Amino acid sequence: METRKALVAIGLSKNAAAVYPALLEAGSAQSGVLVRATKLHRMLVYNALDELIDEGLVTVTKKKNIKIFQAADPAVLESRIGRLSDVVADVLPKLHEL
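Below the sequence we write its predicted structure tokens.
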């Protein structure tokens, strides 16, 4: 399965699934680098970065008042899948009772 499709399948938005691999390749980058790499509009990249930050897949630091984004280790995705598995295990019995 293609990387972007796999990231969408585990719950990331299409844009976040484009930005995360681009940031992994870059190591750390300003948003402009990601805009050029993904060919997405600047606001779509910022929205995707916000989503990835919320998911713990990206961290942001400021150097001289410029935001630098860095991708977290992809192993973070395993913990995300574990949380989703726990949610499913919790809700299934409740759904069966309906």
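The mean pLDDT is 92.
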